[in-house]
Amino acid sequence: MTNIKVGIVGIGNMGSVYAKSIYEKEIKGAVLSAVCSRSVKALEITNAIYLSAWEDCWVDLPINEEHYYEKLQEKIAKAKAEK
Predict the structure, then answer these.
(1) Spatial CA neighbour of 55 closest among 74, 27, 77
(2) HSE (CB half, 13 Å, CA atoms) of 9?
(3) How far is the C-alpha of 38 from the C-alpha of 32, rounded, in Å?
(4) Which of 17, 27, 62, 81 lies deepest, with the highest CB count within 10 Å?
(5) Tens-digit pLDDT profile for the chain (83 aa)?
(6) CA 45 to CA 43: how far, in whole Å?
């Protein structure tokens, strides 16, 4: 099993680095681990931005992870249905 360490990256690359790491975990069975709490906070902010856009409203931090997961699954199902 491969460990992928995700650190703080520049704002321009942040989304692609996290997306690649998640892809590695989900598709290749790698273990995803953050190297510092700032990485986790950056991901929480990113998730909050998505949730805010999906619901067209303000969200509080920390976001409700279960609610975010439900909305994410809805988006995934919708994207698959549109293919």
Answers:
(1) 74
(2) 15
(3) 15
(4) 17
(5) 455 454 444 444 555 666 666 666 665 666 656 556 677 788 888 999 999 999 999 999 889 999 999 999 999 999 889 87
(6) 5
Question: What type of residue is 44?
Answer: E
Q: Which two tokens stand for residue 70?
A: 């439900």
SS3 label, residue 36: coil
7 in Cβ contact with 35 (< 8 Å): yes
CA distance 51 to 34: 22
Residue that has been written with the tokens 């892809």 in this structure:
23
- Which pTM value belongs to this model? 0.56
Longest dimension (CA), the chain: 40
What letter represents residue 63's amino acid? Answer: I
Which residue type occupies 42? A
